[in-house]
Design goal:
With about 160 residues, the chain is of the alpha/beta class. About 55% of the residues lie in helices and about 15% in strands.
């Protein structure tokens, strides 16, 4: 199943305008039209009523719309899960913190995290306050640990 066509269906149902959907999806208006006709042919239903530059869903289109949205949502979740899993196996989660963190139970927190998420490889390194923000900005680490000066608890 071509989920791009499903996305076209959902967008056209929202905009009710071929030109606007084409612009939003970076497609030609003719592509929007062809995708809708292809779905209608494949499903043997009429999804839209087209009249005088107006587009609205048929009753069947209204019934199918939430199901199509659910399919697209599941596809997005699947893609995210694939991305998450591939990332976990390739790169460690880098955490940087101040050298004084042991007194703030930082390693206790990280060991609980490691037990809860065993597939995540952790890498910890120490850095001064001036380097922590720079490391985040440069994406050299995923998180920085620092003490909460009000509670004495390390924060992620």
């Amino acid at each position: 199943m071509d989920t791009r066509k499903l996305a076209v269906f959902v967008d056209l149902a929202e905009t009710r305008n071929y030109s606007w959907s084409a612009e939003r999806l970076f497609l030609a208006q003719s592509t929007i039209s062809k995708d809708i006709m292809a779905l209608e042919k494949a499903w043997q239903v009429k999804l839209f009523i087209r009249a005088h530059r107006q587009v609205r869903l048929t009753r069947v289109g209204e019934l199918l719309l939430p199901k199509v949205k659910a399919v697209l949502q599941r596809e997005a979740e699947l893609n995210q899960a694939i991305t998450d899993q591939s990332w976990l196996g390739e790169r460690p989660l880098v955490i940087q913190g101040l050298p004084s963190l042991p007194q703030y139970q930082a390693f206790h927190i990280m060991s609980r995290f490691a037990k809860r998420y065993p597939n995540v490889k952790l890498k910890f390194s120490e850095a001064g306050v001036d380097k922590l923000a720079h490391a985040l900005d440069q994406k050299k680490c995923g998180y920085c640990l620092y003490p909460d000066i009000y509670n004495g608890i390390p924060q992620l």
